[in-house]
Design brief:
This protein is of the alpha+beta class and 164 residues long. It has a single domain (28-158), classed as Yope Regulator, Chain: A (2-Layer Sandwich), CATH 3.30.1460. Helices cover 41% and strands 29% of the residues. The chain has four helices and eight strands. It has helices spanning 2-25, 34-44, 100-109, 137-158, and strands at residues 28-29, 47-53, 59-64, 70-78, 83-92, 114-117, 123-130, 135-136. Strands 2-3-4-5-7-6 form a six-stranded antiparallel sheet. Strands 1-8 form a two-stranded antiparallel sheet. A hairpin with a 5-residue loop joins strand 6 and strand 7 (123-130). It is globular, with a radius of gyration of 20 Å.
């Protein structure tokens, strides 16, 4: 019985050591600024269209996915800074009226994003990233890539390019 306790303690210590090594190799991102957004756009290889600060002094970038769909990334929960979250957003112009059946179908088929009807009947697609306890750069890049894939699927489904 005592050897089981010793093995359990050894396992726990090994996990703690490995956790410390992982954190040193991949520092956690806990806030968003324009420099980080630019690093992310470069890291995922999406074409940077525009960058800067909006009227509320919130950093943003506009990019084009590999398939040519335009989208934005901007800081959120900025009081006033640094921003503790990030929003990924694409807006689509749709011929005719967007109905709730389409929105519901897209929400069910593309669960990692929220799909909604925006101003002037545009279809919005967004993904919110919480940074309060940190995420690695690798995970943030993956989120950008997944979002780009999903909005390209929406674009194909709608037969529409994103609104600029």
């Amino acid at each position: 019985m005592q050897w089981k306790s010793s093995v359990s303690i050894l396992f726990l210590l090994t996990c703690l050591v490995l956790q410390g090594e992982t954190e040193e190799l991949s520092p956690l991102v806990r806030s968003v600024d324009l420099e980080l957004l630019l690093q992310l756009s470069e890291g995922v290889g999406h074409e940077l269209k525009e960058s800067g600060f909006n009227d509320s002094d919130v950093p943003y970038i506009q990019m084009s996915s590999p398939g040519g769909v335009q989208y934005f990334a901007y800081g959120t929960a900025c009081d006033p800074s640094p921003c503790k979250g990030m929003q990924l957003l694409a807006l689509f112009r749709v011929e005719g009226r967007v109905d709730l059946e389409l929105v519901n179908r897209l929400n069910v088929n593309m669960a990692p994003v929220s799909v909604w009807i925006g101003r002037d009947g545009q279809l919005g697609v967004s993904r919110y990233l919480i940074l309060d306890h940190g995420q690695t750069m690798e995970n943030l890049k993956l989120n950008f890539s997944v979002f780009a894939d999903l909005i390209e699927n929406v674009s194909r489904e709608l037969g529409s390019t994103s609104a600029e």
